[in-house]
Amino acid sequence: MLKLLVLLCVPVAALTAEAPDCISPNDPSVLGRLEFNFFGSKVLYNNLGGMGPAMSDPRMIRYANVALGEIELETEAMARLLSGIPGAYTVGQSVPIRFDLELTNLTEYVVASTSSDIPTSTFNGKNRGSFGSISVKAGHRVKLQMQLVYSCCLDDDCEQFLCSAVPDGHCTHAEYPRESRYDCSARDVPVDQSEVRMTLGLFDLDGNGGLSTYEQVTAYGLEGYDFVQPSTYPDERVDANNVAVDISMEGDVGTFRAQQPGTGSDNPSDPASVNLLQAKRSVNLEFVTQDGKIYFDYEVSPMGTAISTARTLMFSGNGKRALCPLPAPPPISPPPPPSPLPSPPSPSPSPPPPLPSPQPPSPSPLPFSPSPLPPSPPPPSSPSPSPPPPSPSPPPSPSPPSPFAPVPPGYMIKGTVKWDVAVLTSRRRLQAVTNERVSEAVEAILEANDFAMGRLIFAVEAEAVGALVAGSQTYQLTVEVLGTSMRELAEYVKTLDFRTRLAATLGNGAELSEPTNINFEVVPIPGLGALSDGASLAEQQEANVTVQDEVMSWLIILICLVLFFLFLIPLVIFYYVQNKYGRGNVTLWLRYKIAHHNPEKKLFYIPKDLHERLRMQLFEPKAFEAQLRKEMDERDDDRPDLNGTAV
Questions:
Q1: Percentage of the residues of the chain whose pLDDT score is greater than 90
Q2: pTM exceeds 0.90 for this model
Q3: Do residues 56 and 160 touch, judged by C-beta distance below 8 A?
Q4: Cis peptide leading into residue 396 (ω within 30°)
């Protein structure tokens, strides 16, 4: 039988009837569930219950390319069914497969009409690009079925898909519209497996202004649920104390009832990025089905109300989830210190008193009978040495030496340490996690916790290692740090705060290995003033510049700027006039501009008629030449003929 590997084929721990406080990043439910993604999906059919808006479509809403998973092919029939090209897949091969979602109504579906007599079914299909949506009239309930089926799509946007319209079976939407050419052999085959795990997120559960109508969803076959977290998590979070949805569980049936009014302006636009208010009105539902089907009721309560409005349910893949802390890694071992300096010898302790010497044998037999002898006095023992005089108390032991040897002035110790960081999230979100994004996320977290970049942290680099597997990508993180801050950095990285912030930024979870490749080196100080904000001028080896010197420097700069502009402005004017009025007219233009007609002021005084001639010469050279020629002709006519003979 065909085996479905929804991202990761691993057992999943069941959720309790109450929402857990957090989801373990190691829980396969984070990785192993089929997560819906409506952002790249296409609405192939949109005629739920025959209520439109596409009245000629089948009576359903079909979302093409709504999820991505993997399948292990166990029969030749399934290999042929899912192969875009004959013979492309073989038995035993694990292949990526795309899924569509068919939404149908099992009971009567009722819609309202807008003030323009437009049915509210026009809001069905997709909402804001990232959500699926259905609209129901107030006072009505509809039982809905979501059925997972195989997809014909070949790329993330379903611009290419399998079809029978062309010989090679590959169509593009631009030439062959999906709505009429979407007809691969697997199109109507349901995903009928022994176990299919799916996550559905409900968003924007609210009511009208006075809560005279409100949304309610009843889900069947529910394994569990958890709360959607805002994009500001973990600084802000949603839990049972502040969620704006009334939740009740009876066995595997969960009811989720809106508790707050809302408007279109507060609707979310991305399930992965919601604010606190939007997160409070959302919930993640967890399903384990045997046939790829999800059943739920959607109603706009109270039932039977005469209000003629409608509300729209928004659903998508799961939103951001609260993550349980990972177990802390073992403590970092400090770098091996150099051999300690010899300490002054301490006075040796007083030797213990010597044991009594054994009695030496008598030189001659005792002159007594063998009758019992009274105890004889012990022989004199060797004289005990007199106790030494009390020695003066030893000096206090020196403090342990620093693990870092002294460095010459102008140098510092730089440490380098590496971690392996495993980012845990869905495949779709992993595509947005790059080396640069991991590095920037770590830098931001360290900067926010007093590890200033350039002062304590000199470089953060992340590089992907190994192949991307379903739901996980490992990055090697290399951090260059001030040697004396290495231990502090390592202790912070293993804290819950760091791991939680990194997981919230990059995905559903993050695992860190033990630090490796720890080494130290002596390097020149890149900026003496960067290591100590309060260091003295002598310690930073800076020049002792006085305030007068600084004022003088600014004065010199100001004088240079004035001189520069005094030369620059005339030069610009010269080239401007020369290019516009001719090479020989610069002086003429200057005379025209600075002239005036006040005879009392002799400097730059020019009569009006002469000033007018200057203007004509500059701005109307042809008219000036014509007038000049005319004046010369008139002057020639008035001049007496010198060659004539007097009468």
A1: 21
A2: no
A3: no
A4: no
